[in-house]
């Protein structure tokens, strides 16, 4: 159902499969299985996740998977009841996305341009496209060659749920693509062809997400940035946050990111709020004065001591 009806990606299918396999092992120890499990067994499973130290967000994801499974079982007539409907979701905080500054992104891209050969050109192109478009890493590494062969001003991206969206390309990204195309053949064996913009001789035929993340850590080190702060998703966050800082409207950012719900995009407004608050605290003259003086009691009349 996830594949045929919802068009779930292979990564989503793998994640759901792993979560449900873990649930099945737990239920097996209680002599139950999904078709017969009751709400008490599911609550015990969620408690076990908390006991081993899983974060509330991970527990919430496992619960979401269970709810979808049991709704499916009821819809298919394999169960008459839905035991997951009575389960409470864990309370979640609202962690703000990690974001690099504009200067740090510039340093990161410049560090890749200093590398010689095809690898350097490939990384520079990957980063320029990622920062210019905010693509998901899976969308980036699987970009088809046909998407850029005619120097496009926009990319047609096929994202989650097999949905297409249009994302504008910046001039630096287009220039990086133009420089990469002539040396792209160096990533292939002699006489070999590939439909991907970033081909690989590996099993997938394209640069993998894991390899890109590894190369990104190396670029962070070269740029003098803590590698722990850098990931493909952090650059996606930087794209969205820097757009909003520049005055872009939330709906446009939502469309470019491919978010189904604008509430997902609104998290970036909180990042902007935090930056503005820090700016006022650091730069406003009254804020600086208040740090060195005792607060004024404005309830007392003038001259009252």
TrEMBL record:
Superkingdom of origin: Bacteria
Gene3D superfamilies: 1.10.150.130, Intergrase catalytic core
Any one of the GO BP annotations: chromosome segregation
Region (Disordered): 283-305
One Pfam assignment: Phage_int_SAM_1
GO cellular component: cytoplasm
Compositional bias of kind Basic and acidic residues: 294-305
InterPro entries, per database record: CB, DNA_brk_join_enz, Integrase-like_cat_sf, Integrase_catalytic, Integrase_recombinase_N, Integrase_SAM-like_N, Tyrosine_recombinase_XerC/XerD, Tyrosine_recombinase_XerCD
Family: Belongs to the 'phage' integrase family. XerC subfamily.
Subunit relationships: Forms a cyclic heterotetrameric complex composed of two molecules of XerC and two molecules of XerD.
Name this protein carries in UniProt: Tyrosine recombinase XerC
Organism this protein belongs to: Enhydrobacter aerosaccus
